[in-house]
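WARN no homologs supplied; continuing
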Amino acid sequence: MNDVEVAAQITSMKQYFSTAECRSLAWRRMQLKQLLTMTEYHQDEIIAALKLDLNKSEQESWATEIGFVVADIKHTLSHLNKWAKPRKVSTPIVAQLGASYLLPEPKGVVLIMGAWNYPFQLLIAPLIAAIAAGNCAVLKPSELAVNTSILLAKLISQYLDPKAFKVIQGGVTESTELLQQPFDHILYTGGEQVGKVVMRAAAEHLTPVTLELGGKSPCVVDANTNLAVTARRIVWSKWMNAGQTCVAPDYILVDKHFATPLIEALKSALLEFYGEDCQQNADYGRIINKRHHQRLSSYLEGQVVVLGGECDESSLYIAPTLVLNPDLDSAVMTEEIFGPILPIVSVDNLQDVAAFINQRPKPLALYVYSKNQSWVDMLLAQTSAGSVCINDGMMFMTNPELPFGGVGNSGMGSYHGRFGFDTFSHLKAVMKRSFWFDIALRYPPFSRSKLSWLKRLL
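OK structure emitted
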């Protein structure tokens, strides 16, 4: 599809949006229910596509992609009427008699650019929010997860209003053509470098953007913790999807005296989850392609590997790998890993970890394992992250009442639940005045007396 065809499709969608049909709550509910039916009825096909793209197990695919989306749709349907209502705010004395409120209205035609690591969830979850807010949407799935992309294009055209929703497949060329168009909002999930490209393109049309970019999420482990549970939760959150999760712990910070017990506990949890031969375990994923496999393999060069390290490019397999005390200037500590490698950095004093974290770009997530609440409170007060989870990994993603989004280099804006509805809405400020009470203070001719009263009232 060339840029002329893309422009024509978006123009057509803008014309459809102007008819106001998609502004009605009935239309929004119908599209959300259709999306729910699509997801539930075709879940076997979705699981099969995810298996081909990332070797995801059925349970992982359901929990992190299908089940996540189903829960999100149901939550949205149950709260949509409340979210869409005018939101009353107070009115100052000088504007009495009057009433003020915020009226959510859809932005228009939006662009949603998904990611390959959770290729179903990271395209459909933003779409849920866009539909709830009453928008039309162009969807660009990741070309790297080719099987899921093909399936999404087929299913969305069958289940959703074709005048309001389009799936455009392809790679860099198609993405570039899309970014040249004047959308009303863009939500992009992916890496920092492409995020900058998206933001530059959006600036040409003054288009607002939501960027979910990832980064190096620290995991701080205090000796005052439940070691066995801590290890299981770190292993679960790190090696789900073979580490290809934007909010996975990217490195561990631990007191040097507690590093060895932690490493042994992590080894035990990995053995419990994936067995002696992880490569033959059906629950363990694969790297998305050879380029990323080679990137990850290169991170291990010259490192002290205390577990794993086996790489098989032919099957896109990399074993769960622990690296101890890497050079802080090495790629494994300066680049987002996005794979099954977990560096462990032992420090002299955990009181200094806030400074360690703050010397680096702000992360998408921060994980803290400790029974010491005062120390946890200190970390919360002294560090910045998109989200924080205490004594678990990634579980904040299951709460639709919490926003998901980054800060600084890890992104801007947020979605999930009402936060997604608000992201794809313009909260229009409205004030309504009565004709009955029309004081003369604001009108000429001005006087000292009028000014005196205005100073008292404002």
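The chain has two domains: 3-213+409-430, 218-398.
OK
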